[in-house]
Amino acid sequence: MTRSIGVGLGERAYEVVVGQGLLDDAGLRMAPLLKRRRTAVVSDETVWALHGARLTASLKAAGIAVMPVVVPPGEQTKSFTGLESLLDRLLALELDRGDLITAFGGGVVGDLAGFAAAIYKRGIGFIQIPTTLLAQVDSSVGGKTAIDTPRGKNLVGAFHQPRLVLADLDVLATLPEREMRAGYAEVIKYGFLGDFAFFEWLEANGPAVLAREPQALSRAVARSIEMKAEIVAEDETEQGRRALLNLGHTFGHALEAETGYGEALLHGEAVAAGQALAFRFSAAQGLCSSQDATRASAAMAATGLPTRLSDVSATPFDAERLVAHMGQDKKAEGGRLTFILARALGEAFVAKDVDAGAVRTFLRQEGAV
Ligand code: NAD
Ligand code: GLY
User: Fold this and answer.
1) Which H or E element spans position 112?
2) Is 77 within 8 Å of 111 (Cβ atoms)?
3) DSSP 316
């Protein structure tokens, strides 16, 4: 079954289509958005080798000329160098402002191509065709685009909404198990932050989602997108409620920074450990019950996701260094930090005044030194 979920942003509203076999009619869905029947398809080598031919055939059948721009896979492509090279290749194709870029890949390709679209000739439209679970349920929706700098992740970017998102569940068939699990951390996030019934459903159906059983996968992806679309429509530029989508990200970001943003710890894995820590920290602060914190952890651990610092690294983390990563250092030293915490499963909230000392103590209780 194909579902269409609207992101209600007035003149910039768009549809996120979720279903099987969408690559095969991508051409028909994209054609009405194109002034000229051509598009630059930005993809990574892995995705292009696996699925490029199917997308190309579909676009060609709709009379759309495909200009592939294939980049190396991996986070390092989301850099100034990667951006410069991509922009140069787009300029060489002589795209004009009436053309659209198509981002065909995971979050790396989506963030990079989306940011290139935001600044190419002062802004050009783009379409997202996300190919990882993480990209389908999170990064392709909502218009956050960015590259990393040596000072940190996603520090240079723009809000630039896509014109259309096509989330084809079939492409997930080739996604490695570990990437699937990492994306699942972002799926369960929606249950944690605002939908207890969805969380309970995932407790029972998580294995089916990870096994890519079509009905379970479709429900999980569609419900996640529905929640994200609703939050983005209400708070596009993260002045308030959108921050809830960062549940687990403050702890997770610190773990990623310490492990080098790479294969040692994938973003979704860091988010999983971060969510478990956020729930246990909430319980330690008397904000939520320890039963809820245990249940949150258990639901992720059951799928093989990390939930403890010791799951992430055998060498203990340094609590001081972790806290320093949790905001600008000055802010951390000043003693107050912003976290997304929970009152219960399905009830997250923004806590703006968290004591850095309490976080440090908690991390030591969790095994940091
Ligand atoms: P990714 O794009 O690096 O993809 C992970 C790996 O899977 C890559 O090696 C890729 O080549 C491969 N791959 C992609 N699709 C595949 C498929 N169908 N079959 C086989 N292999 C496939 O990583 P990701 O997890 O998709 O995205 C992570 C990035 O997303 C990070 O840079 C993160 O900062 C960003 N992100 C952005 C937002 C946002 O709102 N913009 C939200 C969350 C994460
Ligand atoms: N991934 C967090 C957000 O889109 O706001």
Assistant:
1) helix 107-119
2) no
3) P
What would the pLDDT profile of 65-95 be if each residue is shown by its tens digit? 999 999 999 999 999 999 999 999 999 999 9
CB neighbour class for 180 (10 Å; exposed up to 12, middle 13-18, buried from 19): buried
Q: How far apart are CA 289 and CA 305, in angstroms?
A: 22
What is the atom index within ligand 2 of the atom nearest the CA of 238?
5
What is the distance between the alpha carbons of residues 102 and 113, in angstroms, rounded to a whole number? 8
Euclidean distance between CA atoms 250 and 322, whole angstroms: 10
Ligand 1 mean position, distance from CA 182 (Å): 10
Q: Show the low-confidence residues of the chain (pLDDT under 50).
A: 328-333
Both tokens of 299, joined, read: 């639901």
Compute how many other C-beta atoms are within 10 angstroms of the C-beta atom of residue 253.
Answer: 23
Q: Which CATH class is domain 177-365?
A: mainly alpha
Q: Among 3.40.50.2000, 3.40.50.1970, 3.40.50.10810, 3.30.70.20, name the CATH number for the domain at 3-174.
A: 3.40.50.1970
CA distance 131 to 169: 8
Nearest alpha carbon, ligand 2 atom 3 = 245
What element of type H or E holds 70? strand 65-71
